[in-house]
Specification:
Blueprint (H helix, E strand, L loop, with lengths): L28 H5 L13 E9 L4 H11 L3 E5 L3 H4 L3 H9 L5 E5 L9 H5 L2 H14 L6 E2 L7 E3 L2 E3 L5 H9 L3 E2 L4 E2 L13 H13 L8 E7 L6 H16 L3 E2 L12
Parallel strand pairs: 1-2, 1-9, 1-10, 2-3, 4-7, 8-9
Antiparallel strand pairs: 5-6
Length: 265
């Protein structure tokens, strides 16, 4: 499944580099203090994972502030190049990273494929190196990645991916990385970047996915959205309303490092 994110990032077209090796990130002090512990799940509860892609960008600070105010956990899949292009991007990345365990910084590539997804994935070694560059430059704390424009999963002993992205997923798998897709998407208008669904529609989609077990893992549901959707006050209010509806249902908010069946982080 490909989704257009309309990014304008540079792609390194070189394929002559040596075989890439996984980069060990420079872990921030906060992450070292909060060493990851295997999660314990309550079988009577349902878990939701709010994930926001493509930051830092307009809307990232708004999303961060809303989730912090509401006291809910969230994961930010961030793009390396955007830290330079967005004002105070490096400071914002650091703030999110140092807010663990409420917030998790995760890898969403360095270039976001420059929006040229087929070319990117048809050159898996180049794509792999792009992810490693993001891991290093962002100092991403854990080996967790989301592919740009594609929902794929790499977990302990399992790879679920389309033919297009399978080669890079296998490279990431061999390097010990987890890849996180999504179960429900809060879509946006690709001309305005405004949310398509209202909060009431989104909660209906979440409820239905749980009820019909249309999730990657039973009782665990990953929600995809994008920071820029909520940059205006009226749409920021919709995110707040959606969080309230999730809370009313008794869903438990988690970050994706606590998703079941991940490889060691």
């Amino acid at each position: 499944m490909l989704t257009a994110c309309n990014q304008q990032s540079h792609v390194n077209n070189s394929e002559d580099t040596a075989t890439a090796k996984a980069v060990k990130p420079n872990l921030p002090d906060t992450v070292l203090k909060f060493k990851h512990k295997p999660p314990v799940y309550d079988s009577t509860k349902k878990y939701v994972y709010l994930t926001f892609d493509d930051g830092p960008q307009n809307g990232t600070t708004t999303v961060f502030d809303i989730c912090r105010k509401e006291g809910v956990k969230a994961t930010f899949f961030m793009v390396g190049l955007h830290t330079d292009r967005f004002p105070n991007g490096h400071a914002l990345v650091s703030e999110i990273k140092n807010s663990y365990p409420q917030f998790l910084l995760a890898n969403h590539s360095f270039t976001h494929a420059n929006g040229k997804y087929h070319f990117f994935y048809q050159h898996p070694q180049m794509a792999f190196e792009d992810f490693m560059q993001a891991q290093q430059t962002l100092s991403v704390p854990y080996k967790i990645i989301r592919l740009p424009g594609n929902s794929a999963w790499v977990e302990k002993g399992d790879v679920k991916a389309s033919n297009l992205v399978r080669p890079v997923c296998e490279l990431l798998d061999s390097a010990g990385y987890n890849v996180i897709g999504w179960d429900v998407e809060w879509s946006f208008n690709h001309k305005t970047a405004y949310p398509v669904q209202k909060p009431e529609k989104m909660i209906a989609l979440v409820d239905s996915a749980f009820a019909k077990e249309h999730t990657r893992t039973k009782n665990h549901l990953v929600i995809l959205s994008h920071d820029r959707m909520f940059r205006l006050p009226q749409y920021a209010d919709e995110l707040t309303a959606f969080i309230a509806l999730l809370r009313q249902r008794g869903y438990v908010f988690e970050t994706v490092d606590n998703y079941p069946n991940l490889k060691p982080l």
